[in-house]
Amino acid sequence: MKLKHLITATAFTFSIAGGFAINHWYQNTNKFETINTEITMPTGNFDYAKAWEEVKKFDEDRLPKSALAKVREIQQNAESEKNYQQLIKSYIFSIDYVKEVEEDEENLVKSYTIELMKFRELAGTLPTEFKALSYNIIAKFYEEYYNSQRWSIQNRTKLENDTDPDMNTWCTERFEKEVRNVYELSIAESATLINYPIKDFSLLIETDKRQIDTRFRPTLFDYLAWDYLDMNPQFGVASDFTYQDLELVSGNDKFLNFSPKNNETESMDNRRLEIYKML
User: Are the beta carbons of 189 and 152 closer than 8 angstroms?
Assistant: First the structure.
């Protein structure tokens, strides 16, 4: 059995036995330790390195409004120059800063929601690789919001035929659906994503911070797929198999040919199995 598939099969058995922890962009870390501030290609006339240093200085001086204004400037230039890594990075920061700028809790939630909606609209217009990365990041923000507001969300009334993009109206079931849908969008074009080396996205992905072993996550698809597998295990219904199913650890062929009995399309365990096979 190949080492990569052995690790994949073993990881899958642990995932259905105990679930995964969720990785967030900023959880328990300083935003400037998490996100690289170096210039990456392509570059235009705008000095991104200098601009991010200014953002950092505003942040250190506890001036979130000034920091947000500078991030908006970066955002506008990145969009104009089609510098997609800088554009995505600017949205990550703007979403974070709107939470610091708004003092009123109601306005904070509203501004945070609007910013995420704008980012999701943008994501659908980006080239394949950046679209996938954006959906991955958006899914993490949704999870972060859900986990922080779980108590109030669980008390919301489920709305029939709910299509409202405002997540302040979403019930638990809608959140679960949206998180899964956005993660699905992030890996939808797997045949293309597998051709992009993960090292090409160093501005957005700090592999050392997450201790990612690039031998087993060398491509953008690998990175996105493993993040999907880290999704909150409560999203989706359970399957009819367990880590005790010998086919899961009995060799490459048996693992790849293993099929759950119920074929439940909403089962997160079943979907995880499919993704592991793709890896």
Answer: no
